[in-house]
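Listing S7. Sequence submitted for prediction.
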Amino acid sequence: MAMPEGLRGSRLLVIGGSSGIGEATAAQAALAGAQVTIASRSDTRLSAALARLPGGVASARLDVTDAAAVGEFFAGAPAWDHVILSGSATRSGSVGELALADARAAMDSKFWGAYHVARSARVQDGGSITFVSGVYSVRPVPSAVLQGAINAAIDALARGLALELAPRVRVNVVSPSTTATSLWDRLGDDGRALKLAQVAARLPLARVAQPEDIASAILFVAGNPFATGSVVLIDGGDSLV
């Protein structure tokens, strides 16, 4: 998928840009000529990502669960052309087994984080906000019921915001399936390989997504001036099986 020419010279913020899908998005945007800033809660992860990313990418420390900090961050910077929120920290489990504290923390990280960003982000006229949700919003699984509910809430939030902010700012969502990011490193080498192989065997395309697959879709909707209120499934057919 070719990168939209409209990204060249734009100021683009990738929250969650220190790893995975966010880092891939930042890399592609920088190569397309955007002025990219990545944001994350971890200075260590930001420094490591900057060493991997193209030169000229900037960084900022930001915790989206802190509404006041999000407000101060956006108030202290010029308006952005594109704001992308790709990162979150959630634990999965069945409703009966997942600790309530972990469930609330997941909502704080992914849903309320998105809400805080949407509430405070300063975006130029003609610019965009893009969220990342996930295929569980349309294909729920019993071991991750909360993740499906959060993803569905983000999809609905974006559609409503697309109306609230129209015609000045566009709002979209990209909804991926399982993606081969460092998230799965916690399983160990063998566990990661087994997990990704199991997912690939079930999908119509017989492979899992790479971060770059999802990043290209994010930048497509961000840079497409006629895309708003869209929830774009980039799931390898996961929602069909």
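Caption to Listing S7: primary sequence and predicted structure tokens for the chain studied. The mean pLDDT is 95. The two ends are 25 Å apart (CA to CA).
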